[in-house]
């Protein structure tokens, strides 16, 4: 297991990446070269390290949870704006005005039906 408390360039972590590259190279004979696989292993480590930090640090977990909630809301806003834009032509025909300058994800509301998480109370959600 990588040492997440150390950097991606730590000797022990590099030894693990080298071993992973060797195993992948032998098993899969993929189209990438060994250096590409090594870089891929290092980048994957960085993602796992963030998860490890969130599991071992309450502040990091809270920040990660808030970030994920913000991402879900932003995605919801984008989908809502995209849905409204499907009526773009009909709106122009009915009102004679192009709504494209008014319909942006940033303008969409948070129309949730309740708390997102089991840990969030109804009062906190409101």
Characterization of the model:
With about 130 residues, this protein is an all-alpha fold. It has five helices and no strands. Helix 1 (about 10-30) packs across helix 2 (about 35-55).
Q: Estimate the helix proportion, in percent.
A: 55-70%
Taken as a percent bin, the fraction of beta residues is under 5%
The low-confidence parts are none
What is the global morphology?
elongated
Could you report the average pLDDT, rounded to the nearest whole number? 82
Topology:
Blueprint: H1 11-28, H2 34-56, H3 58-85, H4 88-95, H5 122-125
Fill in the keyword field for this structure.
mainly alpha; elongated; 5 helices; 126 residues; single chain
Short description:
With 126 residues, this protein is mostly helical. It has helices at residues 11-28, 34-56, 58-85, 88-95, 122-125.
């Amino acid at each position: 297991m990588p040492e997440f408390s150390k950097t991606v360039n730590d000797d022990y972590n590099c030894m693990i990446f080298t071993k992973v590259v060797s195993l992948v190279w032998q098993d899969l004979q993929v189209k990438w070269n060994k250096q590409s696989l090594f870089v891929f292993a290092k980048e994957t480590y960085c993602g796992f390290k963030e998860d490890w930090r969130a599991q071992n640090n309450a502040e990091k977990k809270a920040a990660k949870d808030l970030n994920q909630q913000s991402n879900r809301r932003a995605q919801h806003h984008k989908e809502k704006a995209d849905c409204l834009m499907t009526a773009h032509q009909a709106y122009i025909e009915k009102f004679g005005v192009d709504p494209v300058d008014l319909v942006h994800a940033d303008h969409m509301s948070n129309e949730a039906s309740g708390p997102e998480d089991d840990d969030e109370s109804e009062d906190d959600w409101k």
